[in-house]
Design a protein that fits this description.
Elements (H helix, E strand, L loop, with lengths): L3 H9 L15 H8 L14 H5 L3 E6 L10 E6 L3 E6 L4 E5 L7 E4 L5 H8 L14 H13 L3 E6 L2 H20 L1 H26 L4 E5 L3 E2 L2 E2 L3 H21 L4 E4 L8 H6 L4 E3 L9 H8 L4 E3 L4 H5 L3 H17 L4 E2 L12 H14 L3
Parallel strand pairs: 1-6, 6-7, 7-10, 10-11, 11-12, 12-13
Antiparallel strand pairs: 2-3, 3-4, 4-5, 8-9
Helix pairs in contact: 6-7, 6-8, 7-8, 12-13
């Protein structure tokens, strides 16, 4: 049998495979819950390596550069036993849960105009500071470890969209998309250049991975966050540029976006992305339709409705996993088995193991 690395590389490059590889991403809270339900733990009581325990075929090994203008900056604004509010290096105040997973609450933003960006933050990004790249020896070691395990190993990061939201906040960002497109272009130009510099150093000094993931959440339930024409004009030119940069290094690129994706799929294809993740069903995505319409262009990662696993109903799980696997195969889709969302605490360990057993019974051929 091909290794996971071989199978995923073949899927991305439209070559034959002998089985369907798999991946997933349990929340930390979920893994800690699963320790109480039978998941092995280390000597400190922390959950075992989920990649190795569940046999996932994809492994993140590096990236996640320090992109904030004030590199390494974090200021505690307020803290309780349950949550912590911090100001980041772009002047944004965000509120995080301390003991459970979740997206941060947007509290306050300072970068609310192009003048503030140009005066207080953009100058901090020049000249380029190579310390933004992070711990290169650790990335090199992690890449070697996952490669030796036969896993498809990738670097990843956010890019312009998530960085804007984490700097300007939603209101200022959306107003700028409508009223100050030159600021959007300047922000995107600055960060596209910064990321290309970071990745160039990482490739040269830690080694090239098998591919890249770009994490940019463009939608919520049944809608994108903004009109596709706006994305096409102001955001996707930079996606196209970064994909061309990676392709010049012979690296395929997977685009991650939570929420509704369908109206953005033509843009994702035109930008040259090689794969997409995770196709949330509850947000309105239909992966079978995606496979029929875009299967020639994209490999699909994930797409199994997580609510099937949350049902705790073994018959429903068997039917759901079987329908998913057989439906994708019937459409000749290039796909990696996995759920359509990070695995939540509503999923029990034994049910998840059972779902993997069903998948393994259908993975070949």
């Amino acid at each position: 049998m091909q290794s996971g690395r071989e199978a995923i590389d073949n899927l991305l490059r439209k070559r034959p495979v002998d089985h369907v590889p798999q991946t997933d991403s349990p929340w930390g809270d979920t893994l800690r819950k699963w320790v109480t339900q039978g998941l092995p733990a280390n000597a400190q009581g922390e959950p075992t390596d989920s990649l190795e325990h569940f046999g996932y075929d994809m492994a993140g090994c590096g990236g996640w550069f320090d992109w904030l203008p004030k590199r390494g900056f974090s200021e505690t604004v307020e803290e309780t036993d349950a949550w912590k509010t911090t100001r980041n290096g772009a002047g944004a105040v965000l509120k995080y849960w301390k003991h459970k997973s979740g997206t941060p609450e947007h509290v306050d933003f300072h970068m609310t105009s192009r003048e503030i960006w140009e005066r207080e933050y953009k100058p901090l990004l020049f000249p380029f500071d190579r310390q933004r790249v992070g711990d290169i020896p650790a990335v090199r070691d992690n890449l070697a470890k996952r490669r030796a395990q036969g896993r498809w190993s990738h670097y990843g990061s956010t890019l312009v969209w998530e960085n804007m939201r984490g700097s300007m906040g939603d209101y200022a960002m959306y107003m700028a998309l409508a009223d100050d497109p030159d600021w959007i272009h300047d922000f995107c130009r600055t960060y596209t250049d910064l990321y290309k510099q970071c990745y160039t150093i990482l490739f040269a000094e830690a080694g090239k991975p098998d591919g890249i993931w770009i994490y940019e959440d463009l939608g919520y339930k049944d809608r994108l966050f903004c009109n596709p024409a706006v994305l096409e004009s102001l955001i996707f030119p930079y996606y196209r540029e970064i994909v061309e940069f990676f392709h010049a290094h012979d690296l395929p690129v997977i685009f991650h976006s939570c929420g509704f994706q369908e109206p953005a799929l033509p843009l994702i294809v035109q930008a040259g992305f090689d794969g997409i993740h995770p196709m949330e069903v509850k947000a309105g995505n239909d992966i079978f339709t995606f496979a029929e319409q875009y299967g020639e262009h994209l490999m699909f990662v994930g797409g199994l409705d997580e609510r099937i696993l949350e049902s705790r109903d073994r018959a429903a799980v068997r039917k759901g996993v079987t329908d998913f696997m057989q439906g994708m195969k019937a459409r000749h889709a290039r796909f990696v088995y996995g759920s359509d969302h990070s695995l939540s605490t509503n999923i029990d360990y034994d049910i998840y193991q059972y779902a993997l057993d069903v998948y393994r019974g259908l993975m070949n051929g």
